[in-house]
């Protein structure tokens, strides 16, 4: 038997102790340090989480407001709408690829300074947008905005994995994707009214004020969540002293899983140390969390994860949800104004429907996801496989194609406008689960390298978003009905591909375990 056969399969773990009182197993195993984020009090964790959500909501809200003023901006600045939209495409591209620089820096020197830098830069970028005079400046502005905005796409999720155990992450990832999606949908609503009543400049000025408020909030209330435990899932498994007995398939599953048994909560264990003072929490830099070699490896290693099917599939699924969002954005103004005679303010108001849909999705990708995963785990004698939660995509395979047909085919047949509103509500409802589920799948599968694998996911996601910008116009030349029937079937095919991962996902993870654990062990720094 080769040494690789003794390595646990990444992502397979014992989440419920079926031998004892069927208590939930804490994973990863927390240290005894009172300042380990996993040991923080409930209030301290919630404050940290909602600061991450404040960053997500306010950064996304301020940055997406421009969509409602593209026409007046084009008229005043003499920049074509095609150029303005192309600049937005470059921003989305850099939101993904920019992470190759921002992510390693954040994981090495701290997430708090990176979030602060991102917010301060966005404040300046939004003010700059008022004074832009030509296409070149616009392109430069959007590229820089995308680069500094990269943490919103992949660093927030890693912050959530710092704070919460495996059985808790599903709910909080769901809330994150709802905040990310809803902020994008809601921004055009207020921006349209600000443009009509105050002028297009005030859309940028108000956005800059929001960015400034975010900087103040983060400076005083956001804590650093980076923490070196000096261990990985692999070392935890070995330290647990697991007895290998492979007489039955269930025993083999448990041998493959990472099975550290820790059921005591932080409040039930004796913790060492003293909680950091408020002044120390405000320090922008506290310690170094990775070596130079690891930092540089994190800059190129996400490109190596393109060979991991789990990561690539997650990126494609998440990217597809952004594609349908972009298709909605590209056709909304045209359909509402030309087919239904809506005014600009009513077009903005129509975005309340997908906003409400996104908020409603908390119940599905938050609460239902969490309960479903625990039910699946208990049904399988305590073993959690990352593929377990993928079954929740079955509803998305029905609702998202229905939404696209309601929107595009409905407009082509000129059905009542409320039908299209229902379609946008469903699109808004489906987008968060189609983001949170692949994010959770990736972090559950490769937790110790989630900062890097999520970067790979976002590179794929945002590259698809960038590419669809060039495909939308020729696609629409097919006619509304044909375009959206095609889109509906393409969407269904992509979502139903989760069945491939349900069938072979564990095999893919098993094949990646040698290289994965090699990367993990080379990245672990001892805790001081």
TrEMBL record:
One of its GO terms (cellular component) is plasma membrane. It comes from the Eukaryota. GO terms for molecular function: transmembrane transporter activity. Residues 48-505 form the Major facilitator superfamily (MFS) profile domain. The chain crosses the membrane at residues 47-70, 82-102, 114-131, 143-164, 171-190, 202-222, 305-328, 348-369, 390-409, 415-432, 453-472, 484-502. Coiled coil: none annotated. This is MFS general substrate transporter. The lineage of its organism: Eukaryota, Fungi, Dikarya, Basidiomycota, Agaricomycotina.
């Amino acid at each position: 038997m080769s040494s690789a056969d003794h390595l646990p399969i990444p992502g397979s773990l014992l989440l419920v102790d079926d031998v004892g009182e069927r208590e939930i197993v804490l994973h990863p195993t927390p240290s005894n340090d009172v300042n380990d984020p996993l040991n923080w009090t409930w209030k301290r964790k919630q404050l940290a989480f909602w600061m991450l959500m404040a960053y997500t909501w306010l950064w996304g809200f301020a940055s997406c407001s421009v969509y409602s003023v593209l026409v007046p901006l084009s008229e005043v600045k003499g920049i074509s709408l095609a150029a303005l939209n192309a600049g937005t495409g470059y921003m989305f591209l850099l939101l993904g690829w920019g992470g190759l620089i921002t992510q390693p820096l954040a994981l090495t020197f701290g997430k708090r300074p990176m979030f602060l830098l991102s917010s301060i830069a966005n404040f300046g970028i939004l003010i700059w947008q008022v004074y832009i005079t030509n296409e070149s400046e616009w392109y430069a502005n959007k590229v820089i905005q995308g680069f500094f905005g990269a943490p919103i796409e992949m660093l927030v999720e890693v912050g959530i994995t710092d704070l919460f155990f495996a059985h808790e992450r599903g709910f909080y990832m769901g809330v994150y994707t709802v905040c990310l999606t809803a902020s994008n949908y809601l921004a055009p609503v207020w921006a349209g009214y600000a443009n009509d009543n105050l002028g297009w400049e005030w859309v940028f000025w108000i956005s800059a004020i929001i960015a400034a408020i975010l900087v103040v909030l983060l400076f005083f209330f956001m804590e650093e969540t980076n923490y070196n435990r000096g261990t990985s899932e692999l070392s935890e498994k070995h330290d647990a002293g697991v007895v290998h007995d492979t007489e039955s398939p269930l025993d083999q599953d448990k041998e493959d899983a990472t099975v550290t048994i820790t059921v005591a909560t932080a409040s039930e264990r004796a913790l060492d140390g003293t909680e950091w003072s408020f002044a120390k929490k405000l320090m922008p830099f506290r310690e170094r969390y990775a070596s130079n070699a690891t930092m540089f490896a994190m800059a190129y290693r996400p490109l190596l994860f393109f060979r991991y099917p789990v990561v690539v599939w997650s990126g494609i699924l998440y990217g597809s949800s952004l594609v349908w969002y972009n298709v909605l954005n590209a056709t909304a103004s045209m359909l509402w104004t030309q087919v239904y005679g809506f005014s600009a303010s009513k077009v903005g108001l129509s975005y309340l429907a997908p906003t409400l849909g996104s908020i409603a999705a908390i119940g599905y990708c938050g609460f239902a996801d969490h309960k479903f995963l625990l039910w699946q785990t208990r049904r399988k004698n305590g073993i959690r496989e990352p593929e377990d939660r993928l079954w929740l995509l079955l509803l998305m395979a029905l609702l998202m194609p229905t939404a696209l047909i309601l929107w595009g085919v409905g407009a082509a047949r000129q059905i009542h406008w409320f039908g299209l509103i229902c379609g946008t509500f469903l699109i808004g409802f489906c987008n968060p689960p189609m983001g949170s589920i692949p994010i959770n799948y990736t972090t559950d599968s490769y937790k110790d390298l989630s900062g890097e694998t999520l970067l790979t996911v976002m590179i794929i996601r945002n590259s698809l978003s960038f590419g669809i910008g060039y495909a939308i116009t020729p696609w629409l030349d097919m006619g509304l009905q044909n375009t959206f029937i095609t889109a509906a079937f393409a969407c269904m095919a992509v979502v139903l591909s989760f069945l491939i991962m349900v069938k072979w996902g564990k095999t893919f993870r098993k094949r990646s375990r040698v290289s994965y654990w090699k990367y993990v062990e080379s990245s672990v720094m001892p805790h001081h």
